[in-house]
Amino acid sequence: MSRDVGIFRLGNIVLKIVVGDITEFAGDAIVNPANTYGYMGGGVALAIKMRGGRAIEEEAIGQAPIPIGSAIITTGGALKVKAVIHTPTVVEPGGSSSPENVYRAARAAIKKAIENNFKTIAFPLMGAGIGGVSPKESAKAMVKAFEEFRDREVEVYLYIRDPDIVAVVAEACSK
């Protein structure tokens, strides 16, 4: 069961922090913080593949390599979305990320969503799991990317699994 825990405005963008499972999101697209090869073997990527189906990963691999700072779109499979946007935060599967990679990935994903007229997009905290970026730094980097598109009317849902980090993420989103 998901629940909204914070709502912020970044110009015309509405940013909602949600505690819950991103694979339950119903909207236009879910963002997968990918690796450059398109493999979906761990973290959020594995959860998306497990719930949405292997076809998502097969399409992503078919479009690889995906450079950091770019994004591709695949089917949403059995998920309640039109598409999955894959944008690398790491080069190698299981590799470490950085706030700069998170920023570049978030920027590429929201740009790709806007190009495809998606109005509701769910992001996880990118790079903050296996990638090793702190939740605060991840949220700050993502908000920096979203700010660049503040003139666009988009609803962004930022999913977090751990309710104990809500305050840290909300603080990063409010600056």
Automatic annotation (TrEMBL):
It comes from Ignisphaera aggregans (strain DSM 17230 / JCM 13409 / AQ1.S1). This is Appr-1-p processing domain protein. The lineage of its organism: Archaea, Thermoproteota, Thermoprotei, Desulfurococcales, Desulfurococcaceae. PANTHER family: GANGLIOSIDE INDUCED DIFFERENTIATION ASSOCIATED PROTEIN 2-RELATED, MACRO DOMAIN-CONTAINING PROTEIN. Residues 2-175 form the Macro domain. It holds the Pfam family Macro. SMART domains: A1pp.
